[in-house]
């Protein structure tokens, strides 16, 4: 397959977001439980409610992922002054998140194998956090460009992030591919524009969803299964 540029998702595509998130959240909850002497179950339920509340208020905005807003809303639900520990909780979360980030083995091989092809990360969440992730993963000398949902004002699967990424790569639609782990956000967003797309289906966890959707795309378990040649 000949391509001139790659649109690439970041979270759960190049590294295991879920693992880093779970460990970071546990550490943050531990700190909150000790500081305020409250039950873990109450904290857990309040956090989930806060996350839903934030995303409901900011459905297409990068701010809908803001951990500071999550913790602010969580403390409000718990009837605790959010100014006491929301910022600190957010910092604890992200510091431990970054510590537990690690590129998957197939990602390392893929990035080396495609080093002559420019890559644009197309990713949701705020620019400051995504840039910090890139630095932590030492991708700043490999990734050519990045488009965040904060930058374009909308999230995937809206066409803007993909189109802006293609513009940054200096390519045409038929000269790029999209690679990501989310069928709804990465694959459907890209295929709706006619972009050849690859779904990373690690551990076959999306098999049922893929069968029901019927989207025209390629499905692989590892990035190393994608064969690419430069035009």
Task: Give the key terms.
10 helices; plasmid; 2 domains; 6-stranded parallel β-sheet; HAD family hydrolase; Rossmann fold; alpha/beta; 231 residues; 8 strands; two-stranded parallel sheet; single chain; elongated
Q: Name the strands of the widest sheet in spatial order.
A: 4-3-2-5-6-7
Number of helices: 10
Q: CATH topology of the largest domain, anyone?
A: Rossmann fold
Would you tell me the structural class of the helices and strands? alpha/beta
Give the CATH class of the largest domain: Alpha Beta
Organism: Candidatus Photodesmus blepharonis
Protein name: HAD family hydrolase
GO molecular function: metal ion binding; phosphatase activity
GO biological process, one term: small molecule metabolic process
Describe the structure.
The chain is 49% helix and 13% strand. The longest helix has 20 residues, at 17-36. It has helices spanning 17-36, 40-57, 67-77, 86-99, 105-113, 127-136, 149-152, 159-169, 183-191, 207-213; strands spanning 2-3, 5-8, 119-123, 145-148, 176-180, 196-200, 218-220, 229-230. By secondary structure, it is an alpha/beta fold. The radius of gyration is 19 Å and the shape is elongated. The protein folds into two domains: 2-15 and 102-230, HAD superfamily/HAD-like (Rossmann fold, 3-Layer(aba) Sandwich); 18-99. The chain has a six-stranded parallel β-sheet with strand order 4-3-2-5-6-7. Strands 1-8 form a two-stranded parallel ribbon. The mean pLDDT is 93. α1 runs antiparallel to α4 and α2 (40-57) crosses α3 (67-77).
């Amino acid at each position: 397959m000949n391509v001139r540029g790659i649109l690439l998702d970041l979270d759960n595509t190049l590294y295991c977001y879920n693992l880093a998130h779970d460990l970071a959240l546990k550490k943050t909850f531990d700190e909150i439980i000790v500081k305020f002497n409250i039950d873990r179950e109450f904290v857990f339920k309040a956090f989930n409610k806060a996350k839903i509340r934030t995303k409901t208020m900011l459905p297409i905005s990068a701010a809908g992922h803001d951990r500071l807003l999550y913790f602010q809303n969580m403390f409000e639900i718990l009837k605790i002054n959010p100014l006491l520990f929301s910022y600190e909780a957010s910092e604890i979360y992200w510091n431990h998140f970054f510590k537990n980030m690690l590129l998957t083995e197939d990602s390392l091989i893929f990035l080396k194998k495609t080093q002559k092809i420019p890559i644009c990360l197309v990713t949701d969440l705020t620019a400051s956090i995504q840039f910090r992730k890139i630095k932590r993963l030492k991708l700043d000398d490999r990734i050519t460009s990045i488009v965040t949902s904060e930058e374009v004002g909308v999230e995937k699967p809206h066409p803007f992030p993909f189109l802006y990424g293609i513009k940054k790569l200096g390519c045409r639609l038929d000269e790029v591919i999209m690679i990501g782990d989310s069928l709804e956000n990465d694959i459907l967003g890209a295929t709706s524009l006619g972009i050849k797309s690859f779904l990373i289906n690690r551990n076959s966890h999306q098999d049922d969803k893929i069968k029901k959707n019927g989207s025209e795309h390629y499905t692989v378990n590892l990035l190393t299964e994608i064969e690419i040649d430069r035009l």
